[in-house]
Amino acid sequence: MRLVLDHLTASYPRWSLAANGVFSPGIHLVSGDVGSGKSTLSLMMAGLLMPESGSVIREDITWTLLSFQFPEFHITGLSVAEECRSWDLDPDAVIRAAGIDVTGETPALSLSRGELKRLHLACVLSRKYDLLLLDEPFSSLDCPGKEWVCRQLSNRTEGITVIFTHEQSIFPRIDHIWEIVGGNLIDCGDMPGAVVRWQHAPALVKNLIRAGRIPLALTPEGIREAACRTRG
Fold first, then answer.
1. Engineered SS bond to 172: which of 32, 78, 130, 154, CB 3.0-4.6 Å?
2. Reduced to 3 states, what is the DSSP secondary structure of residue 47?
3. Whole-angstrom Cα distance, residue 7 to residue 20?
4. Does residue 111 contact residue 100 with C-beta atoms inside 8 Å?
């Protein structure tokens, strides 16, 4: 199973993006500044936007899902229960998984954006996909919400999962890092070596690297281990 970006390009009057690389099974992080082209790249990878040139080659990928940054874009049910059933899921199980204080009869669009995000992601992450694309999955979430999403994502062991984000505070288990710099998708490589080449690394990670304590993982536990490690 592979997703191949074969010299993709996209451009607008004052912006351009070029992407070339291979995504294999595992959890991939695509980082970049706001407006760098992460959402555009996710749309091209999902097949919802045609590149100006180049192609996306899907090898043994039959089930793809793209989760947009704003959860209300996905809502099709009037109530929480109807929304869960539209995913063919049990509403009570989804509500428990999402950790939100609502009932099945609660109107879906009466939820706060953070609650709606957790509801949507609980539905998304209950399924298995060959290719799961998550555009800013941490947006609208507080710290407990981000920690919850990271736990769920870290448990994914099948398929290709790609997280597009400018998040700097908390991450799930990451296998491979990419970043968009100057309109180009840069392959930083596999963890843990990728963090040394990662220009968008959080300040804490950069400080650990300068101290000779390269994090083996970007999870809170991995960062804590690196911070407490005795330099050998």
1. 154
2. coil
3. 5
4. yes
Which run of H or E residues covers position 95? helix 91-98
Predicted TM-score (pTM) above 0.85: yes
Question: What are the tens digits of pLDDT across the range 52-107?
Answer: 999 999 999 999 999 998 999 999 999 999 999 999 999 999 999 999 999 999 99
- Which residues have a Cβ under 8 Å from the Cβ of 178 and sit 6 or more positions away? 21, 28, 29, 30, 31, 185, 186, 187, 188
What number of helices (H) and strands (E) belong to the chain?
A: 8, 9
d(CA 118, CA 195): 29
Record the tokens describing residue 104, joined without a space. 């099945």
Cα 81 to Cα 70, 108, 152, 170, distances in angstroms: 20, 8, 21, 30
